[in-house]
Every structure is written in C-alpha cells, then in structure tokens.
Amino acid sequence: MTAATIRSELRFVLNGQDVTLRDVAPDQTLLDWLRVSRLLKGTKEGCAEGDCGACTVLVGRLTPSGGLVYEGVNACIRFMGSLDGCHVVTVEHVAAGDGTLHPVQQAMVDYHGSQCGFCTPGFVMSLYALWMEAPNPSDQQIETALQGNLCRCTGYEPILRAARAISSYGGTDRDPLLAERAAMIERLKALKDGARVEMGAGRNRFVVPANLDDFAALLAAEPTATVVAGSTDVGLWVTKQMRDITPVVFIAGLDELRSIAVQDGTVSIGAGVTYSEAFETLSAQIPALGPLIARIGGQQVRNMGTIGGNIANGSPIGDTPPALIALGATLTLRRGADRRTIRLEDYFIAYGKQDRRPGEFVEAVHVPVPKAAERFAVYKVTKRRDEDITATLGAFRLSLAADGTVEDICIAYGGMAATPKRAFAVETALTGQPWNEATVEAAMAKYAEDYQPLTDMRATAEYRALVARNLLMRFFLETTSAAAPAQVSRYEAA
Ligand SMILES: Cc1cc2nc3c(=O)[nH]c(=O)nc-3n(C[C@H](O)[C@H](O)[C@H](O)COP(=O)(O)OP(=O)(O)OC[C@H]3O[C@@H](n4cnc5c(N)ncnc54)[C@H](O)[C@@H]3O)c2cc1C
Ligand code: FES
Ligand code: FES
Least buried of 51, 103, 357, 425, by fewest C-beta within 10 Å? Predict the structure, then answer.
C-alpha cells in the first residue's frame, strides 16, 4: 500500500452537515463526542454499556448492494473510528427546521409517552428506525424494536400506544431521511475513496483498513492490535473497565466480511455480519436460530454486534457458539494470505484461550443446515426474557436410525464450563441406544462427567446442573410428542 492511499481524516455526515476530523482518539465514543464536542445533549448517557438505549442514534450506512440502511445503535459503545463514510442522525435532527415535531415525536407527546424525559430521545430514535422500515408495525415488531430501550417512569403502555399511532400523524413519503435517501447515497459514496484511514501515532493509533487484504496485512504486521467489529464487547472494555485497547483496527466497514451465502446445504457467514443482517437468512435456513438471535441484546446491539465477534471473544456464555457447535460448524481463520479451517468446537481451548495464532483473524463461520430428518433445538435460560445474558444454554442436534435408535447426537452448552463445550459423556451414553425416556434418564446422570459448572450472579452451580439435565429431557419430549416440530428455540426463566 502506498502513502497516497492513506487518509488521516475521518469523514462522515452528522445530521445535515459534512464532518471531517483529524484528531480522534482510538477509544473515543460517539456519545462523548456528540455531547462534549458538539454539545448535542439530546443523546443521553444512562448506563454506558448498551443496555438502556438512552444514547440511541441512527447510523446510516451504505450496504454492499449500494443501498442505504438506517439502524439504531448505542452511541455509548460505538467508537468514532467506525463511522467513516456513515450518516449519523441524532434526535436534534428529527423535528423539522421550523420546529414542527416529527410524527414519532408528536405521537409520543399526545400519548403521554414521556414523563421525566430521560429515556425519550432514545425511544424516539428506536421508533423512528422502526417506522422507516415498518410504518404500521405489529405489536411484536414494536416490542422487538424497543427491547433495548428502558424507561423507569411510564410503565411502557403509553409508549406502545404512541408507537401504534405514529402513522396516523403522517406518512413515510414526507419523511426527510427517506425523501433524501438517494441524495444521501451519492453523498456517502463520494466519501468512499477506497483509502485506508489512519489516525494517531505509535500505539495510540487507529486504522480503518481499505479492504480485507489490507486488514489481513495490517494484522499480520501488528498482531497485538485490537480488532473491533461491532464493539458491543470491546465498547464495555473501555467504558466499564477503562482498558487500553490501542492500537485499534476497525473492521465494521469491510464489505467483504459482510456476506452471508447459502451453498450446498451450508450457510457461510462473514465475520462482519451483524445479528440483524444474519437474522433473515438464518431464520429461513435454520429456523431455531431466529428466536435465539432475537434474544441477543436489544435491537441496537443486534444492529452492531457480529456473530464473528461472538465467536472470536471466546466467552463461555456467548449464545451462538454452542448452537453452531451442535450444528457442526467450521471456522475459517486467516493470517495474511494464509487460511485454515477448523471445527468451531476446537477453537475454544480454555477460559480466555482460543486457537487463534498471532496475526490471525476470524474470516467466516460455515454452518451446515440440518438435514430434513434431523432434529435441532436450542434453549436459552435467563432470568428475564429480553436483553439478558445466558445462565445456561443447551443446543441439541439428533439423527435417529430407522429402528428408532440414536444414530448421531451432538450436544453443546454455554454457561456450564470455562468454554462453550460439548457433552461427550452424555452423547456417548445416548448413541446407539433407543431414543426413549429410560435412555434419556440414564444419560442425564452423565452430565456430571461433562460439566462442573460455577456459581455466579446468574445462577448457582446446582441450578445450572439441574437445568442442563432437564433441557435434555425437554428435547426428548419435544422430539417425541405428537406435534413435534423439527426445530425449536425456547426461553426459560431461571
Ligand atoms: C447490552 C448488551 C447485551 C448483550 N447481550 C448478549 C446476548 O444476549 N448474548 C450474547 O451472546 N452476547 C451478548 N452481548 C455481547 C456481544 O453483543 C456479543 O458477544 C457480540 O456478538 C460481539 O460482537 P461484536 O462484533 O460487537 O464484537 P466486538 O466487541 O467488536 O469484539 C469482540 C471480541 O472479538 C474480537 N473480534 C471481533 N471480530 C473479530 C474477527 N473478525 N477476528 C478476530 N477477532 C475479532 C475483538 O477483538 C474482541 O476480542 C451483549 C452485549 C451488550 C452490550
Ligand atoms: S447509555 Fe445506556 S445504552 Fe448507551
Ligand atoms: S420517562 Fe423517565 S425514564 Fe422514561
């Protein structure tokens, strides 16, 4: 790469204004910049960890197919460096220039959707994003869109009533963001000059690679750099743990990592594909994964967070790894031009230790679609349904032989060990045996050989051990009941 292709400026559009910045810290959050540098204080800070939604803004980004999508994101854990070429829209930009409220705002006023008002800008932005995509949303769509917004005052019912009424205040045809979409696409395209963005010096530096090869070369040369995709984990390292993450490489803008394709019975998911982007394809191909994704964070987190990041961080309570392990997924890792593909389960070595060599990154995960005769289920057990981290998650894939014996079973859990982990002893006890209650009960005793779970704030060790056993029984009952679905995904309250 020649010096001519390196740019030392960050360029994006804020509301209606072009912005060029030459001095941005690698860990500068969008929320701090909006409030401190731009004095745009409509965007609030509630939790600084992606949970409450008070900081919700819209980020418009060009899609690989040349469109423009606006998504609600948590400004508190979104780093400035990831915004190159984007359109940031804050609550200050929602009302018309003459002060006339937007239909979303007017509905919130008329239906008393605001009391102290602290959460209100965040709700307005989330509802705005929803209304642009679904002007007449179902209650289910409204609840999904608002999973990531908390209000301590209204009790939510007035907000839900406002959400149902928005379209009666005006159609999307007159919405400025939608009316100006074509012009904004051209404006954002003009910002995309194909250059690498590099800012800062020494360790105190961030880079936005020009493309995937550039990223691969960069990381091979500087293996200790922090890779940041959606920043829904790394953001908290900064805001909650005050960790030094420098130098940083931002990869959210790399289109080559954002593809999701189905070929020969396998779904290949680029490491930069967000939960929101993966939802449709995964729901269609492996229906049990749809409801699981819908329970990861709130909509803002799903708009930023990636499956690649969920795998790469190696957490024992990440939701997708056990499900993908049970499905027999493989992982492609890349260093420079070299690639290797391993079984996903082999990636997780020990707590905080993954099979990722210096300079390597996760490029894609490949997920076999279960065959028609296979049964697949995933159960996430949490204290509350929405926006909660797993206490225990069990995933099961089963093939039965013609005589009703277990031909093949793959079982993986999260929250039961230091890594996402298969239940080999349980699998062995079941394989070749008749798929009946007696076999399952006998196999339940084997969990003690596979897992010695911990007690923490989410659940006790005893509770986890009991739940793990019971999930197997549940899977058995669901696969043998008269109306057994091929795939299920369930929530249980702990
Ligand atoms: C409010 C909230 C709720 C959440 N709820 C859930 C939940 O319900 N279930 C759940 O599983 N998780 C949850 N999370 C955690 C998080 O959203 C997920 O782990 C997410 O998938 C992380 O993806 P990311 O792109 O944001 O990763 P980042 O934060 O960008 O990165 C995470 C880690 O992966 C590394 N990394 C990222 N991409 C690559 C790559 N391509 N190659 C190598 N390394 C890479 C980073 O260096 C870092 O170590 C939640 C987070 C928040 C803030
Ligand atoms: S401040 Fe709570 S989600 Fe950002
Ligand atoms: S109106 Fe007070 S927090 Fe929602």
Answer: 357
Q: Which ligand is nearest to the CA of 150?
A: 3
- Mutate which of 55, 127, 152 for ligand 3? The one with the most ligand atoms within 8 Å of its CB, which is 152
Is residue 73 lining ligand 2, measured as CB closer than 6 Å?
no
Could you tell me how far CA 353 lies from the centroid of its own chain? 22
Give 86 Cα–ligand 3 centroid separation in angstroms: 29
Beta pairing class for 361-368 and 266-270? antiparallel
> Which amino acid, one-letter code, is at 278?
A
DSSP class per residue in 163-230: HHHGGGG--GGG-HHHHTHHHHHHHHHHH--SPEEEEEETTEEEEE-SSHHHHHHHHHH-TTSEEESS
pLDDT tens sequence for the chain (494 residues): 444 499 999 999 999 999 999 999 999 999 999 999 999 999 999 999 999 999 999 999 999 888 999 999 999 999 999 999 999 999 999 999 899 999 999 999 999 999 999 999 999 999 999 999 999 999 999 999 999 999 999 989 999 999 999 999 988 887 889 999 999 999 999 999 999 999 998 889 999 999 999 999 999 999 999 999 999 999 999 999 999 999 999 999 999 999 999 999 999 999 999 999 999 999 999 999 999 999 999 999 999 999 999 999 999 999 999 999 999 999 999 999 999 999 999 999 999 999 999 999 999 999 999 999 999 999 999 999 889 999 999 999 999 999 999 999 999 999 999 999 999 999 999 999 999 999 999 999 999 999 999 999 999 999 999 999 999 999 999 999 866 667 777 666 55
- What 402-407 contacts at long range (C-beta under 8 Å, 24+ apart), as own/partner pairs, is 404/434, 404/435, 404/436, 405/432, 405/433, 405/434, 405/435, 406/430, 406/431, 406/432, 406/433, 406/434, 406/435, 406/439, 407/431
Quick count: other Cβ atoms within 10 Å of Cβ 178?
A: 16
Which ligand is in closest contact with the Cα of 236? 1
CB-based burial, 189-205: b 16+ in 10 Å, e otherwise = eebeeebbbbbbeeeeb
27 sits in the region (left: phi over 0; alpha: psi -120 to 50; else beta) called: alpha
Q: How far is the CA of 116 from the centre of ligand 3 (A)?
A: 5
Ligand 1 mean position, distance from CA 402 (Å)? 41
- Rounded to the nearest angstrom, the distance between the alpha carbon of 112 and the centre of ligand 2 is 23
HSE-CB for 288 with a 13 A CA cutoff: 27
Look up residue 194 and give its two tokens. 């194909």
Q: Is the pTM of this model over 0.85?
A: yes
Q: How far apart are CA 252 and CA 350, in angstroms?
A: 27
Please classify residue 362 by burial: count the beta carbons closer than 10 Å to its beta carbon, then call 0-12 exposed, 13-18 middle and 19+ buried: buried
